[in-house]
Specification:
With about 450 residues, the chain is of the alpha/beta class. The protein contains 11 helices and 23 strands. About 25% of the residues lie in helices and about 30% in strands. The protein starts with 8 loop residues before the first helix and ends with a helix. InterPro entries: CBD2, CBM2/CBM3_carb-bd_dom_sf, CBM2_carb-bd_dom_sf, GH, Glyco_hydro_5.
Length: about 450
């Protein structure tokens, strides 16, 4: 059974608590289709420094049948792109947009989220707001919405029919993943792009996640938070951690499993930063059954025993001090291919899995042989990243589907869970989306590269 849940105002407030919001009251409206006593809420749901995403909601005391909203941004904004509107325009800091027809009616007493947008620049606030040409009362700044707790309530059950509702708390049983009933399962899904290199914040959008759950049938989503490059986590730890929190909160609401990936190639050189990151998130989200931790994306050609394993031991200890049971997936040397090396000297602990990555134009049976050695030694594997391309992510645009199918068959036969690289727009053959793909889903006509193959191998 598949479901589609609409986001409630209360849940939007959860995200806003960390990122800020403002409410603007529309009063004294005299236009025939603009009601007195309306409220417009401007909610920043994602802010990545150079740009942001926001939603607009209207509450009507009296019915509204068609609206045009305008305001001035308090910060410098450019490149705005709105959905579910007509006639959008941005002149300097002044923005205006009208309803799209189907969303023009707002009943008396109803609050309706009418549209959203992304923009470059500073989110700031809005002022001098007007509906249907009638200016807001007062200075337009209104009162901030009441902050709500940022942590999802662990007593809230996941939505009916969703992956988390079906499988519940995960564990490692032997060298497989099991659901809360002890049954071996295989989760399948997709990974984000490095967050700071996304062309748009696809990973942070709840509507997109719910659309992938319902239309592609993904069960797990991996949020790849870049660590070392310029502009990534080490440059802005609080900013990028807040983006990861948005994805965790969205996944909890959507009933989808989420892999929190410390997407690094030299993470063992940043152990203190990793310990701080995972200690904080495990403390606040470790109670959720859908969270999976991945402390090290792809160690390069470094020693397992001398560098990678000691790093994992430190980070796992930090996670377990806050979260005793959620699965932790451990990166392995040589860009997460040397799982056989890790199998000969594994990390002590429970509910530990090991990362295996492959790209089918580069990696073939020799890499599966290494993985089979690890499985025979008792290791539980999770392919948190793969592509039907060369190991560079498909810069040449090629796909190697025959070898990719061999990998898919091997993972299915061994019940090895996977997330495919990567949810973004671009020329690489591992980019799942083509130019013009909207932020919120609806991508059936925007598939690119290996996307049709990936989607065909998601649960049917």
């Amino acid at each position: 059974m598949q479901v589609r849940r609409r986001r409630s105002t209360a849940v939007v407030g959860v995200v806003v608590a960390a990122l800020g919001a403002s409410a603007v009251t529309i009063a004294g409206a005299q236009h025939a289709s603009a009601a007195e006593g309306c409220e417009v809420e401007y909610t920043v749901v994602s802010d990545w420094g150079s740009g942001f995403q926001a939603n607009i909601s209207i509450t009507a005391d009296e019915p509204i049948d068609g609206w045009t909203v305008e305001w001035d941004f308090t910060g410098a904004v450019s490149g705005i792109s709105a959905w579910n509107v007509t006639g959008q325009s941005l002149s300097g800091r002044h923005f205006e947009a009208s309803d799209a027809g189907w969303n023009g009616a707002i009943a008396s007493g109803q609050t309706r989220e009418v549209f959203g947008f992304t923009a470059s620049g500073s989110a700031g606030d809005i002022e001098n707001a007007a509906v249907n040409g009638v200016e807001c009362g007062g200075d337009g700044s209104g009162e901030p919405t009441e902050p709500e707790p940022t942590d999802p309530d662990p007593t809230d059950p996941p939505p009916a029919g969703t992956p988390v509702e079906r499988h519940g708390q995960l564990s490692v049983c032997g060298n497989n993943m099991c659901n809360e009933d002890g049954q071996e399962i295989q989760l399948r899904g997709v990974s984000s792009m490095w967050l700071h290199w996304q062309t748009q914040p696809y990973a942070q959008n709840l509507d997109a996640l719910e659309w992938m759950r319902d239309e592609w049938n993904i069960e797990v989503f991996r949020v790849a938070m870049g660590v070392e490059p310029e502009g990534a986590y080490l440059d802005d730890p609080n900013g990028w951690k807040s983006q990861v929190e948005t994805v965790i909160q969205n996944a909890a609401e959507a009933g989808v499993y989420v892999i929190v990936d410390f997407h690094a190639h030299q993470a063992h050189q940043h152990q203190a930063a990793a310990v701080a990151f995972f200690t904080d998130l495990a403390d606040r989200y470790g109670h959720l059954p859908n969270v999976i931790w991945e402390p090290y994306n792809e160690p390069e050609q470094v020693s397992w025993a001398g560098a990678v394993k000691p790093y994992h031991e430190a980070v796992v200890a930090a996670i377990r001090a806050q979260d005793p049971d959620n699965i932790v997936v451990l990166g392995t040397p040589t860009w997460s291919q040397d799982v056989d090396v890790a199998a000969a000297n594994p990390v002590a602990g429970t509910n530990l899995m090991y990362t295996l990555h492959f790209y089918s134009c580069t990696h073939a049976q020799w890499n599966r042989d290494k993985a089979n050695t690890a499985i025979n030694a008792g290791l539980a594997l999770f392919v948190t990243e793969w592509g039907a391309s060369a190991a560079d992510g498909g810069l040449d645009g090629r796909v190697c589907l025959d070898e990719a199918q061999r990998w898919i068959d091997w993972m299915g036969g061994n019940k090895i869970s996977w997330t495919a690289w990567k949810l973004d727009v671009g020329n690489d053959s591992t980019n799942l989306l083509s130019a013009g793909a909207p932020l919120t889903g609806g991508w059936s006509n925007h598939l690119h590269g290996h996307a049709p193959f990936v989607i065909a191998n998601l649960p049917q």
